[in-house]
Design brief:
The chain contains two helices and seven strands, in the order E-E-E-E-H-E-E-E-H. By secondary structure, the chain is mainly beta. It has a five-stranded mixed beta barrel. 19% of the residues are buried.
């Protein structure tokens, strides 16, 4: 599966992503008790998605790591798609020298922003 194929209804998601950035962790109270959570920006060659990291994954996953999410799910949170391994999924770091680099993944977004506005010559 690729990032562009994700939707708020996606369940049982198996996807490989590169971690592009990680927000500072925060402590939260859940119905299961206290927990630590953070959000990472992750992506592949087709786009980026927010990825929830919980508890031990907060300290285990680093920027620029390549990860496999198994049996994850997607939800819409504050108007954006957010992928989570959830309680029944798994998140594993992998070695994949062929996976697109951070620069390649982010480069597509940067180039789109740098394109000048299309100008059309008017005829009189």
């Amino acid at each position: 599966m690729k990032v562009t194929e994700l939707s708020p209804a996606s369940r049982g998601v198996d996807i490989r992503l590169r971690i592009l950035s990680i927000e500072p962790a925060r402590d939260v109270q859940t119905r299961y008790g206290p927990a630590r959570v953070t959000t990472a920006l992750a992506g592949d060659e087709t786009g980026t998605v927010k990825l929830s990291l919980w508890n031990e994954d907060v300290d285990r996953i680093n920027e620029n790591a390549v990860v496999d999410v198994h049996n994850g799910f997607v939800k819409s949170f504050r108007g954006e798609l957010e992928l989570s391994p959830g309680k029944f999924g798994q998140l594993a770091t992998v070695e994949d020298a062929q996976f697109p680099s951070r620069e390649r993944i982010m480069g597509g977004e940067d180039k789109a922003e740098e394109r000048p506005a299309k100008r059309t010559a008017g005829r009189k």
